[in-house]
Amino acid sequence: MASKQRNTYRAYTAAELKARSTVPNAGDISVGSGNITCKYITTVKIRTSLGESINHIDDLSKSNKVNKWSGSGPYTRSVSGTPNIRGDGAWLQHNKPTAHFKFGNFAGYNHNALTPSYYNTNRTTTLIIQSGGTAIFDCALTLGELKFMNGDIAGESQVLGLAFIVWDGNTLIGYQVKDLETLKDTIISSAFQITKTNVTVSKTYTCQIRLIKSKTDYNYNPTNVVCGITELPDYTKDVIVQAANHFYLNGPYALNPPVINYSIPTYTFGEWLLVRPSFYIATGRLMFEALAENARAWTGLHITAYIEQGYYNLDGNWIGTIITDETIPSLIWDGNWAIHDSAQYIDILIWKLAGVTKPLPAPGYSLRIVIKCNPNQ
Description:
Layout: E1 2-7, H1 14-20, E2 29-31, E3 35-41, H2 43-50, H3 57-62, E4 76-80, E5 91-95, E6 117-118, E7 127-130, E8 133-142, E9 161-168, E10 171-179, E11 186-199, E12 203-212, E13 225-227, E14 235-242, E15 246-250, E16 259-260, E17 266-269, E18 272-275, E19 278-280, E20 285-288, E21 290-293, E22 301-312, E23 318-322, E24 331-333, E25 346-349, E26 352-353, E27 356-357, E28 366-373
Parallel strand pairs: 7-14, 15-28
Antiparallel strand pairs: 1-3, 2-3, 4-5, 6-8, 8-11, 9-10, 9-12, 12-13, 12-14, 15-16, 17-18, 18-21, 19-20, 20-25, 22-23, 22-24, 22-28, 26-27
């Protein structure tokens, strides 16, 4: 009957290692200062923990029912592959024993050890932000109880940190490293978080988890990275920059009119000229100083307008939903619009209808004002 001592590691206390062990029995584990001592490790106790029917230590050590994620057990670990400058290409490998089957290998074995996994499923959901805003990448995960250090991985005696890394292609956006000695099973309350400020272009970013040789820093070179964990694969996150509030005009001779920005006081599209447009949510009024037709004077100009909420997707296409009806009644003016200058603003009520204010757009979306000039012509 074997006896073996296990030292504490990472943030686990000796009492916690005892409480989580399924081999040997709790009564056969004593707690010391920074260690536990396991006595009376037998094939019966191992077999019972695994739920096996076999009764030989070599067969039990090779059993498929052994939890390879237990911090203590018969498995050894190594790295397969070689990391490149981005830390790709190297992964943690679990190895079944082929010889030297020992009872002591099961000292402190935890059959219920957790498998590494991502905890927050929303980490990959599309993030919609304002142009020039901040994108936040966060990652909560279950790490499990493996030691990763002091020779636990063959050839790697100094695996000290766990890194969360975000890339824009081959450009490093940011990283955060956590000292493995401060971590237990699940990283939630101290989840990883990386911010990217002044985002102006919609992009897809790659996020990685890596075991590294530093407690504090991720170095952009392969000598710093040990490996990734297959159960924590790289993943991508789309960040979409929503449109700022703007006007989109659809008028004669302008099949694909461009966006008009508030900062541009006067804009020409096709034969139309729009001067200083603005929209006020509080009053529901679309206002512009002048709407002129450059080539010739118009009479009976017919204007309708409505509001969409939405955003630009990664292909630059507007994804929108109409949230107000077209203006009813539509506004019709007689006269020469070419000479309607800055004497006063033209005012169209598009946010309120029959005295009822339409609901505001959902949070995280922008507005798009669609104006139709003579839509039936």
